[in-house]
Specification:
Blueprint lengths: L1 E6 L3 H11 L4 E7 L5 H7 L7 E2 L2 H6 L5 E4 L6 H10 L4 E4 L6 H14 L3 E4 L6 H9 L6 E11 L8 H17 L5 E7 L11 E7 L5 E7 L1 E13 L2 E6 L6 E5 L21 E3 L8 H15 L7 H19 L2
Parallel strand pairs: 1-2, 1-4, 2-3, 4-5, 5-6, 7-10
Antiparallel strand pairs: 7-11, 8-9, 9-10, 11-12, 12-13, 13-14
Helix pairs in contact: 1-8, 4-5, 5-9, 7-9
């Protein structure tokens, strides 16, 4: 039995709690959130027996806890997670790992020193549709572009920009698909709602690598339509992974013109009609798969599939995007 404590019972924390409550061999013993009561938790969380509602200082004194989950605002992750990492506990931290690179590196150092398996909430790596996308990647030919579009009407935050909220998903997929780190970053940011702050409403960024592959990121929280789309343009075929669509993967074969070798001349300006197929995706719910993986980490104490080193690299790239945007 894995005896766990959840810190943060907001919109996403409730989903985590319900998922944990449905897993066999899991005892969600404690919930820590100053904005909830026993009655509100019992109403929204059908777990028997219900978790005990306690304060963060009280949780720090509890014995017999096997793992901690942190699902609070990104800017609070460092202060909340560090004491439990220093105890050597397995700790799940929602994305982003932190909202500053020095804090992320400090958590990594503490995790190494105390042998704490830190599991970063990069949920898309547990998405069956993403895993199918990765499986199909070699069939696309030479990868020319990964084009990410991530936006919605909100959620609006006061502690971090839309970049920090949306980019971790896209960056971790890019790193995972390409197996390499970017060598150069270019970026543009725009803030219309609160221009007096550094909380960008929209970010456009490009990542360059040692290979010819480029990554284009477009994210923000002022879109009337939710988008969570990755378009992968290859030399042979193009794949679209749309996480908001019913058919989440569309494979376009023979998309694009025929280009003459050497001259670069396009034989016809009329586009070919591509063949479109929709690959079958294995069943599975991303959050359920992620929570199963964390519980496995709690039992084994092995390095997670989404380790803290991965989270630090994502934070490093986001910080580089912010820095690049300041010079444009």
């Amino acid at each position: 039995m894995a005896r766990l404590a959840l810190i943060g019972f907001g919109r996403w924390g409730k989903k985590i709690a319900k998922t944990l409550g449905s897993l066999p061999g899991v005892d969600l013993a404690y919930i820590c959130d100053p904005h909830v009561t026993k009655d509100s938790v019992r109403t929204s969380l059908p777990i028997t027996p219900p978790p005990e509602i306690i304060s963060l200082p009280e949780l720090g004194k509890k014995q017999g806890i096997d793992g901690i989950l942190v699902a609070t605002s990104g800017s609070t992750h460092f202060d909340i997670a560090l004491p439990f990492i220093e105890k050597g506990l397995p700790v799940f931290i929602e994305k982003p790992l932190t909202t500053s690179l020095p804090q992320a590196q400090a958590l990594e150092k503490a995790a190494q020193k105390n042998q704490s398996p830190v599991f970063v909430g990069h949920i898309h790596l547990y998405n069956p549709a993403y895993r199918k996308t990765k499986e199909l990647l070699p069939t696309l030919g030479e990868i020319r572009l990964l084009w990410f579009e991530s936006m919605n009407n909100g959620p609006y935050r006061n502690d971090m920009s839309s970049l920090w909220d949306w980019a971790p998903h896209d960056i971790i997929m890019a790193l995972d698909l390409l197996g390499q780190k970017p060598t150069n970053v270019k970026a543009w940011q725009y803030s219309w709602l609160r221009p007096q702050t550094n909380l960008a409403d929209m970010t456009v960024a490009s990542l360059e690598f040692q290979t010819p592959t480029k990554v284009l990121l477009h994210m923000g929280w002022l879109s009337p339509v939710k988008k969570k789309k990755l378009t992968i343009i290859g030399s042979r075929h193009t794949l679209v992974f749309d996480d908001t669509a019913t058919k989440k993967i569309a494979l376009y074969e023979n998309l694009g013109p025929t280009v003459e070798a050497g001259s670069g001349h396009i034989q016809s300006i009329i586009p070919q009609t591509p063949q479109v197929s929709y690959p079958e995706i294995p069943a599975g719910e991303p959050l359920m798969e992620e929570m199963k993986a964390f519980v496995s980490t709690v039992h084994s104490r092995a390095t997670p599939n989404t380790p803290i080193s991965q989270g630090v690299e994502v934070v490093k790239i986001i910080a580089a995007i912010e820095q690049a945007a300041k010079s444009t």
